Amino acid sequence: MTRRNKLQQLEDDIRALEVAHSQTGSLAVRRQLTTHQKQLQALDDDKAVYALLWTNQTFYAGGNRVDRLLAHRLCAQAMEWQVAELRLLDGTLTCQEELIRHQFERFYLDIYSAEELNHNVSGAGRTMWKKEISVYGQ
Questions:
Q1: Which domain of life does the protein's organism represent (predicted)?
Q2: Cα–Cα distance measured from residue 32 to residue 55, given in angstroms and rounded to the nearest whole number
Q3: What is the enclosing helix (H) or strand (E) of 14?
């Protein structure tokens, strides 16, 4: 699913949930609405950060030598933030976005669940982390 399709789907879902919430006032519908709004905000934030980096890079690329060097560094920095491929647990390399996202989700769930066991934290914290990761990971 492309970014544009995700945005359109989220906006449509939010509209439908707002109507349902205004008619029923249900807490479950309100939670779904909040979750969808957070997902939409995360997509918008990512787009704004990318646009800002791209604007800086293109602005400096047309300048003097120092500015061109800065543009090159900004471009390299933007490329460093992207995970192009990842080695899976079975040893194979993948460049599929869904598999990479799933591996990161499993990695962070393992870290936070191990941290919880080490610090003898109650089980409520673990479920909170799972919910947050699943919201941001989609």
A1: Eukaryota
A2: 35
A3: helix 3-24
